[in-house]
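Cross-posted from the bioinformatics board.
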Amino acid sequence: MSSRYKYFEAIEKHAWLLGILTAIFLSFGGLAEVLPLFVAANKVEAPEDVEPYDPLRLAGFETYVQNGCYVCHSQMIRHLGFETARYGQHSTAEESVYDRPMQWGSKRTGPDLARVGGKYTDEWHREHLKDPRSVVPSSNMPRYNWLEDKDIDAKRLQGSMRAMQRLGAPYTDEDIEQAAKAVEGKTQMDALIAYLQGLGIKNTPKSNPKAKEVPAS
Amino acid sequence: MQTQETYNDHVVRLFLLASVVWGLIGMSVGVFIAAELYWPNIDLNFPALTFSRLRPDHTFGVIFAFGGSALMGTCFYVVQRTGHVRLAYSKLAEFVFWGWQLSCVLSMLTMPFGLTQGKEYAEPEWWIDILIAIVWVAFAVVFFATLARRRIRHIYVANWYYGAFIIAVGMMHVVNNLALPVAMTRSVPIYSGVVDAMVQWWYGHNAVAFILTAGFLGMMYYFVPRQAQRPLWSYRFSIINFWALISVYMWAGAHHLMYTALPDWVQSVGMAFSLILVMPSWGSSANGLLTFNGVWHKLKDDAAAKFMVLSLIFYGAATMEGSIMAVKTVNTLSHYTEWTVAHVHSGSLGWVAMITIGSLYAMAPRVLGQEIHSKKAMEAHFWLHLCGTLIYVIAMWSAGIIQGLMWREIDADGSLVYSFLASFETIKPFFALRWFGGCLVLTGMVLMAWNLWHTASRARRETLEPIPVPTSDPVYGEVETQASPN
Ligand code: HEM
Ligand code: HEM
């Protein structure tokens, strides 16, 4: 065995050395990619005319997450001609600054929803969520009719707002205080519809009018 | 007289049992959700059975409960055998077992009821995450303490992969799950938007890399030479592949976010490293396959060896496919489609499940002190699994490519040719085919459970003798660590 192999042999014979070197090698990639993004992310600021979710839409966001809508729907229109032709202008980093966690998704069993806001009426959404096959006969989307019986937990919603405030979302204490009233008497279905109707409209800067043109698909 | 030191196979047997049970559960859920995509009303309008709520139970069930239990069990088995030493801290090892089972049960019972963080592959809520972190630290302590006590100075390469799996998963789990708890049912992640996306896919990709790849490579590097009863084709080569794999994998996460709002340079780095990645992947695959050189005849009547050889072929195929999908132009077609699902299952049913099943069949006779109850059933399992996997993958592959092509079809005046619905209706029949493939795989798993159950019950009747640790002076060398008898 060559003499230089001796040094390598040391790794093969000492568990702690092997462990530490492994950890170091593992860290490179993560640090190199994630750290610069942290720096860049501080620069991604919500444009002035985009506000964080109002209480009802935030409750809708939570309903969207908790029912796993993201496993079938993306919210990320890629920079590609055939995507923007179908769904509208490509998504930008600014549009999801208030999404914790982000809902970009990775699989489209159903269509992208990043700009679905305003495309259908509230009634259409309600019918569709209650029984998708009543409006789209060949759809395989599950029924979510039971969302109409579920109330919104206002306490928890205020907790989420407070946590987001701590993480930098511009909610005032007053906003949080009044959240309970804003969702009073509303169901999770109402909240979800409000959330969907805001997508691509309320989270998109007004200075970017192209984003609002919703093409037919 | 000194009492003879014996291997701690008790905890290994527990993990063996758990992984078979979780395999059955995780894959049954897989078959059920596959059916839901074709017959959507079979959820009976019961919220917890809704596809979108149940799908995390499938991914968590197969990756962490089935894969995790199999990895922990084989890891404890391998580290004892290759170090000629009894597992350190038996009590703590037992805690690792029960702690892990509890984490899995809690996750599986809470996710369908809406207790989810909504982060793919990291759905369980914060309080389960804390439990998982504690169990993981205990797992690391048992593993590294056993390594430290080993009697064979040289650390066999399988342990390197297990070690990397333990360290990497621990790091990723903590970083990805940082959140502010709001209630038992809700936490707010500290990352948002684009940073969350990068952290999420750095995690998601490396869950693939260090659980579904490095961990199972550890399994492969021990059980393949063992089953072939030949030393590894090239030991040096396996070490080179190790360093290449762990240093390249972490960089590649961005291939999940091509053409999104992620900065361009990160996407390009992700693509470049994904292309390089094919080399260490094929290196390990070739190393395992070439180990069978000269003993290919064993495949004829050893189903465990058949599973292993096929798993290595699928590993090579899935990694090559992955690198191709990471090319930006290819990704424009494959992203968001069923092609991704085909890739996932050629990796998971082909590589992960097959190497696990092969290793379980190889390990069971040794920890149970019994021949496998029925060789015929093993053989049948192999063919069921292989056919099921091929049907699944080919169906989803066709669906994905059809779907991708229809989405991008633009006519002369620049408008889209097909509506989304048209593409969906075209690929719908493939969902039924995939379900059928899944049924074959599941039937094979049931056969395995039945077979191992009978093997174990015979073992219980004849009371197990603990296996003594060979404590004679070890000889330094490769053959001895790779092909030592029990
Ligand atoms: C009986 C066998 C199986 C069946 C029928 C099955 C079925 C499915 C189905 C229907 C989906 C959802 C796909 C979609 O949303 O379009 C899925 C996703 C998934 N399955 Fe399986 N599966 C099986 C085995 C496995 C195994 C053994 C593993 C891993 C070890 C696995 C890992 C995954 C992963 C990671 C996903 C998520 C894919 C993604 O997000 O792209 N599956 N499976
Ligand atoms: C050289 C190795 C590999 C490379 C370069 C690679 C690359 C890729 C790419 C490009 C995607 C598609 C991302 C997207 O468009 O959304 C993907 C998805 C995936 N791959 Fe691989 N892959 C490799 C090996 C494997 C192996 C061995 C497995 C084992 C099971 C695996 C499991 C997965 C999973 C689970 C996903 C789906 C993630 C999701 O969207 O939910 N990959 N991979």
